[in-house]
Amino acid sequence: MRYHQAIHDVPLIFEGCNEAVPQDIESELDGLLPRNLQRARLDLPDLPEREVVKHFVNLSQMNFGVDNGMYPLGSCTMKYNPKICDDISSLETVANMHPLQDASTMQGALALMFELEGMLCEIGGVDAVTLQPAAGAHGEFTGMHIVRAFHESKGEERHEVVLPDTAHGTNPASAAMVGYDVLDLPSKDGCVDLEALNAAVSDDTAAFMLTNPNTLGLFEKEVREIAGVVHDAGALLYYDGANLNAIMGKTSPGKMDFDIVHFNPHKTFATPHGGGGPGAGPVGVKKDLERFLPVPRIVRNEERFELDYDRPDSIGKVKVFYGNFAVLVRAYVYIKMHGGKGLERVSELAVLNSNYLKQGLTEMFDMPYGDLRKHEFVLSGKKLKERGLRTMDFAKRLLDYGFHAPTVYFPLIVEEALMIEPTETETKDTLDAFIEACGRILSESPDIVRSAPHNTARRRIDEVRAARDMILSWRSYREKTQSI
Amino acid sequence: MLSKLGLASIEDLFDDVPKDVRTKGLHLPDGVDEIRLSRGLQELLRPNRPASDWLSFLGAGVYYHHIPAAVKTIISRSEFSTSYTPYQSEISQGMLQALFEYQSFMVELTGMDIVNSSMYDSSTALGEAVLMSHRMSGGSIFLSSRAVSPEKLSVAQLYAKGADVTVDTVDYDRESGLIDINDLESKVTDDVTGFYFETPNLFGVLESEWKTVREILGDKAVVIGVNPLALAVMMPPGEMGADIVVGDAQPLGVSMSLGGPSIGLFGCRAEHLRKMPGRIVGMTEDVERTRSFCMTLQTREQHIRRSRATSNICTNEALLAVAVAAHMGLLGRTGLRKTALENLTNMKELAAGIDSLDAFSAPVFDSPHFNEFVIRSPVGIDRLNEHLMTKKIHGVLAIDRWFPELKDCALVTTTEMHTPEDHRRLIDAMGAIR
Ligand SMILES: Cc1ncc(COP(=O)(O)O)c(C=O)c1O
Questions:
Q1: From start to end of A386-484, where are the E strands?
Q2: Of the four listed, A313, A365, B4, B382, which is most buried by Cβ atoms within 10 Å?
Q3: Complex ipTM value
Q4: Is there a contact between A171 and A184 (Cβ–Cβ < 8 Å)?
Q5: Boundaries of CATH 3.40.640.10 in chain A?
């Protein structure tokens, strides 16, 4: 399929028609707010509803979502999101709930969250879950604080977090934010090098962070041995749950001996990603670590649910209130909709689709590391260089065929990486069409590929210029254009 | 598909998972269809009492405001809602321009040079502000006004811990509810990183001593917490000498949803830009020289800088930033100012109504307020709330649990959603208490 994105000239909302400002409220304001607290001016547009809706609807047509087509962005699990989840999360009994209401008036919400915690325990193989963190990275931050509290509770000060060089950028960033030095461990054949790990850990190691399957889509077969090495050093094993979509029902982080786990409901449990968020980042732990979880904990007292703040060993709070409730509701609905068997099926199909797609692309690309993959796989675009092309050119050209680009240049250890995750919700026909499009692009003239995309709202965008000009708002645009 | 892969069964795809870590499926009930799911969920959530059902005067950071129907229309466009972070800018212009407009609206409201495209909420924005202040001016103590939600402060403390910074508080004046300037002055030592205060603060009170604060802090960071709706009429923090501004943009078009997701507002002065956390969208051109947008200054971020990034944030609250931009577009300058005015008016009227009851006093603090205020009750707040709840009115927020010196005091919030009859219902219910 050739894709043609809408191209509208949509001026900034500030550039729209600005009719004479109607009567202002200044005289009324004077009686309510002292003059010295009032603002002198406020330059905002005044537009009729009709114009505002037109503006944003036309903008939306210049945006590509999962609902437009396949979005094989590796590591991001861009599956189709069932609409019932959105419907439920906009019920008044969700949307109009205030977090400081008396617990007796939020029993439905607490029941839902309590049950969701339980379902996540089962999926993750853990004993207790907090729903408080706002995203995956925030879950990592929470998990690293639990690591710190755990060691401090034993009177130990450990300074280092170890992670493989295939780790997602948030892993090292989260460990650093909690005050840890970060040690990168070089991989061997795309997986953790057990010997190197053995040499790297010491009594200064606080934790080892890992995702399994890892970011190359390879299952770390030696995960139990890894756990052994980490635990023998007195450190904890942290599971980045971004790749959970590959293994539900087949194994679990708990079964693999991980101590702390975060979940990404906006990946695995189908919350639409919203152009960057919101998401959620529940964290699960083994029994011994439960006492460190953030407050409040949701507890059940016979038929009533309560919020328990009395947890002296808790790390405190990672954000106000109880988590991104409207997102958690979607995850709850998704899990209920699929049930245990359905979730296992999700993982089976995600892995099947990934391997099928990989097979279809083997002839075309270098495929470093191993054969069987889980829900995603990484290709190397280094052969493109022979034709004067780079991975980014190939990625941009895919847009012209109506496919969102894969993740590019990550993981860092693969040259010219293309990281592809089709997810379980794409049909065989779509996967075949993707394979065909890749084949076609490789036979096209390099000039066409290098100058792609051609069918999107914009042609290749100058990112270097953006960083140089630094026009970061309407105000800075006016200041900069006026001074020229 | 399996045969193409030369496999006999789906299980073969999991051959690489060693036997000793295999599990036997999930012990969860079977899936249910949409009809049952929808019914079941409505049933499960029925015991909830949303603010659209019981009358609510709760605020303290999360507010019940009107959201024009068109906001939902706009953010339900699935081209927006089902997209990922706009890394591929050419195919994501809609989201990028909308985020640029969000940044622009917030720059205008706050008077700051730069606003990023969102943090999780005001508490994590404050946490990040503590860390950013530390990057800007070193030091090991971060000061915060005490008239801030203790829950928010505990989040800030946790963030601060990672940089070996401790958070200490500055008292408020018992009469005015404003920063106790003497206490501030005595606590600003060489070791201080910066100072955080809110206006309106937790008591709903608007600060006026920002010049003095700026002078006392010198070249240390001044971080100001705001309610962006109040900024429609209020002096912007950019003119109060703020280095960093934080807040929740939730009052501008985002539903309460039990407190999450909210959207963290984060802005700073231009000279601190490279120390700022979060994503930023900038304007540029494509090869045909057409105006375009893309994410920029990404070298601060985790996917490039890893352990030396300014923050670990990846997923943020982008769709809610679109909601805020849409909301501000729909209300416009006139609508926003009118809404802020209604909040101010309602606050005055409700406080006067409660104060006219013999046994109650309101507001407790003798300063200008925005849309919430502290009342003193003749009975314990628990008893007051029990009584209110029998009238299908949500209890007010007991703040004496956090501030023992404010015995029998509670925070009451009113917005443009409240009618004179709603106020009357609360006042009558309060008046009936013995
Ligand atoms: C492997 C991996 N880990 C962690 C994260 C961070 O999760 P979030 O974006 O929810 O903060 C991501 C998502 O981008 C990821 O792909």
A1: 407-408, 417-420
A2: A365
A3: 0.97
A4: no
A5: 83-338
**pLDDT score for A21:** 61
Question: Does position A22 have pLDDT exceeding 70, yes or no?
Answer: no
The whole-number pLDDT of residue B188 equals 97
Longest CA–CA separation in chain B, Å = 85
Alpha carbon distance B295, B100 (integer Å)? 9
Q: Average the pLDDT over A442-453 and give the result.
A: 97
Is residue B118 within 8 Å of B155, Cβ to Cβ? no
Looking at residues B337-358, what average pLDDT do you find? 97
Q: How confident is the model at residue A23 (pLDDT cuts 50, 70, 90)?
A: low
Q: Does any ligand 1 atom lie closer than 6 A to the CB of residue A282?
A: no
> Domain A83-338: which topology?
Aspartate Aminotransferase; domain 2 (3.40.640)
Residue A20 has pLDDT above 60, yes or no: no
- Give me the percent of chain B exceeding a pLDDT of 70: 100
Tally of CB atoms within 10 A around A65: 26
For chain B, the average pLDDT equals 97
Q: Across all residues in chain A, what is the average pLDDT? A: 95
From residue A320, how far is each of A221, B38, B117, B194 by CA, in Å?
39, 29, 20, 22
B174-205: per-residue pLDDT in tens?
A: 999 999 999 999 999 999 999 999 999 999 99
Preceding omega of B363 cis (within 30 degrees of 0)? yes
What confidence score (pLDDT) does residue B12 get? 95
Of A176, A256, A266, the CB nearest to B315: A266
The reported pLDDT for the residue numbered A193 is 97
**pLDDT of res. A56:** 98
Burial of A335 (C-beta count, 10 Å sphere; 0-12/13-18/19+): buried
Q: Where in chain B is the domain with CATH 3.90.1150.10?
A: 55-68+332-431
Q: Which fold has domain B55-68+332-431?
A: Aspartate Aminotransferase, domain 1 (3.90.1150)
Helix (H) or strand (E) holding A238: strand A236-241
CATH number among 3.40.50.720, 3.40.50.970, 3.10.150.10, 3.40.640.10, domain B69-327: 3.40.640.10
Distance in Å, alpha carbon of A130 to nearest chain B alpha carbon: 14
Q: Mean pLDDT, to the nearest integer, of A441-452? A: 97
Contact A459, A451 (CB under 8 A): yes
Residue nearest to atom 8 of ligand 1 (CA): A136
pLDDT > 80? residue A370: no
B84 vs A273: CB contact, 8 Å cut-off? yes
User: Which tokens sit at B339?
Assistant: 């809404």
Query: B401 CB contacts (<8 Å, ≥6 apart)?
Result: none
Which chain B residue's Cα is nearest to A146? B158
Q: Which residues of A touch B89 (CB under 8 A)?
A: 458, 461, 463
- Dist. CA A215 → ligand 1 center (Å): 11
A262 within ligand 1 shell (Cβ under 6 A)? no
Chain B residues in contact with A55 by the CB 8 A cut-off are: 329
